[in-house]
Amino acid sequence: MVIAQPQSVDVSPSTKQGAAENDVVLEAGSATCLLPSTPHAVPLGRAMVRRGLTHLGAESMADDIALVATELLANALAHGVRDAASRESASDELHRRRTDGVRISLKSSGAHVVLSVTDPSPTPPVRRPRDLAAGGGRGLQLVESLSLCWGWTLLDEQDGQRQPGKSVWAMFSKVAAEKPAPQISIQGAA
C-alpha cells in the first residue's frame, strides 16, 4: 500500500546541538543521522538502522528495515540529490548547504516503527510498473512488499523559509516482527 501525502508537513527530526554528519542521535522513541551525499551513505545508513532498532528495542525487524533503508537511500542519492544538484545555482551557498546530505530517521510509536529518508528534492518517488526484463526499477516494489505501507511528504517551512526536499517513509509492524517464524520440517532430509 502506498500513501502519498503531498501536503506540507514537518518531518524534520530533532537534532542535538553540535551533532555532526554520521553521528547517530538517539532520543526517546527515535534515532536519526545525517549522511553524506556519497555511496558511503548506504552502508552507514544500514549500520544506523541496526543501532537505532537496538535502541528502540526492535532488533527483530533489522533485516527488513535495513533492506528498505538501502533502497530508500539509494533512491535518495540517485534521484533526490542529483535532482537537487541540477537545480542548484553555483553561487547559492545557502541552498547548497541545505541540499548536502540525506537524513535517515527511525521513530517508534509502540506498535510501529517508521523509517524515513529525507533528501533535498521535492520530486516525488515513482513506483515503476513491474517489468521482469528491466535491469532495475524494483526498489519501491520491494519497499512496498516489506512494509505495511509507504509514502512521501514534502518538507515544511523552517525559520520562515520553505525547506527544499521531501521525506520518503515506510511503516513496519512491531507485532508482526515479534511472532516466531513457522518451523518447517522436511522428512528424509540428510
From TrEMBL:
Q: Which Pfam families match?
A: HATPase_c_2
Q: What is this protein called?
A: ATP-binding protein
The protein's superkingdom reads Bacteria
Start and end residues of each Histidine kinase/HSP90-like ATPase domain: 36-146
**Keyword ATP-binding: yes or no?**
yes
Gene Ontology molecular functions: ATP binding
- Signal peptide residues are none
Q: What's in the keyword line of the UniProt record?
A: ATP-binding, Kinase, Nucleotide-binding, Serine/threonine-protein kinase, Transferase
Q: Which PANTHER family match?
A: ANTI-SIGMA-F FACTOR RSBW (PTHR35526:SF3), ANTI-SIGMA-F FACTOR RSBW-RELATED (PTHR35526)
- Residue runs in coiled coils: none
| Nucleotide-binding found in the keyword field | yes
Q: What SUPFAM superfamilies does the annotation carry?
A: ATPase domain of HSP90 chaperone/DNA topoisomerase II/histidine kinase
